[in-house]
Design a protein that fits this description.
Radius of gyration: 22 Å
Largest sheet: 7 strands, parallel
Structural class: alpha/beta
Number of strands: 12
Order of helices and strands: EHEHEHEHEHHEHEEHEHEHEEH
Distance between the termini: 20 Å
Strand content: 15-25%
Length: about 325
């Protein structure tokens, strides 16, 4: 089996061991390629392992030997599932590999915003504390998370984990989910009610035609003026111009984002420089331990397919 793997999708510093793939066939690795280069590189491969590479009709037509597509991700919106289905191509994803680091990142962002951590660290480094006349100084107002109402949209593995962390902080957790879970310890509310009552709303759903621009001018208008939006899921869930306008006008208090609609972020993205907006470059899933786990899952998926027992199949 000829296998093409997009290593830039998972390894940035040659810190991962890809030998499990090399036990499965003839492996070739690639980084960032132009589309024409990608078509040439993959023209005779049987299996393609990607993350952000678009696997569409054009690629599949140019690479007719592809029988298997694996993703270094839980989301698979970059893959044209219908085109793969028509060709009998098996598509497998990597569920639940990033639950803990993404949950960690949600609260790293929120606590940085509530505690004005960057502002205070920068001020201290510039000599602000050295020059202070009192034992502490607090020019940047901070907030306490305890007792806040924390809304979670999407109650999958990450949503459940985030709920437990928020509860441990003493927050009042409510959830909104398409499929009501059994024996859920948290109050279930409609999306509209969540927006109206929550101090923090955190998005943990996939990007689909239904959820695209879920956060828009109308839904933002329902939120409290002191509310915070968190998005560590997919950038396309948010109408970025509407969110920038809401932040800059003070219609909501802040946003914590680990993803934007087009990545890398464009210079003309309206959220670039928006007030009270913390943005990290899609790093919630990137701790070393997480990527080692992801690599094992994806290699295991391909081995299971070769052995005739495919797992984590989405198409």
């Amino acid at each position: 089996m000829k296998i093409a793997i997009n290593t830039s999708a998972i390894s940035f510093t040659d810190d991962l061991d890809f030998s499990e793939f090399e036990k499965l066939g003839d492996v070739r690795y690639f980084g960032e390629l132009e589309r024409s280069q990608l078509f040439e590189f993959c023209k005779d491969v049987d299996a393609l392992i990607v993350n952000k590479v678009i696997v569409d009709e054009a690629l599949l037509s140019a690479c007719p030997n592809i029988k298997y597509v694996g993703t270094f991700a839980t989301g698979y919106n970059v893959v044209d599932i219908e085109a793969c289905r028509k060709r009998g191509i098996t598509v497998c994803n990597a569920p639940d590999y990033s639950t803990h680091p993404v949950g960690q990142h949600v609260f790293a962002l929120l606590l940085a915003l509530y505690g004005k951590i960057s502002e205070y660290v920068g001020s201290v480094n510039e000599g602000g504390w050295i020059n202070s006349k009192t034992f502490c100084y607090f020019p940047y107002p901070t907030r306490e998370f305890y007792g806040k109402t924390f809304g979670i949209y999407g109650y999958g593995n990450i949503g459940k984990y985030v709920a437990r962390i928020a509860e441990a902080f003493g927050a009042n957790v409510v959830i909104c989910t398409r499929t009501p879970p059994k024996n859920c310890p948290y109050r279930q509310v409609t999306f509209e009610e969540m927006l109206k009552i929550c101090d923090v709303v955190s998005l943990h759903c996939p990007l689909t035609p239904v959820t695209a621009k879920l956060i828009n001018r109308d839904t933002l208008a329902l939120m409290k003026r002191d509310a915070v939006l968190i998005n560590t899921a997919r950038g396309g869930l948010v109408d970025e111009q509407a969110l920038a306008d809401a932040l800059n006008s003070g219609a909501i208090a802040g946003a914590c984002l680990d993803t934007v609609a087009e990545e890398p972020m464009l210079k003309n993205n309206p959220l670039f420089g928006a007030k009270n907006c913390l943005i990290t470059p899609h790093i919630g899933w990137t701790p070393h331990e997480t990527r080692v786990r992801l690599l094992k899952i994806v290699a295991g998926n391909l081995k299971a397919y070769i052995d005739g027992n495919p797992r984590n199949v989405v198409s």
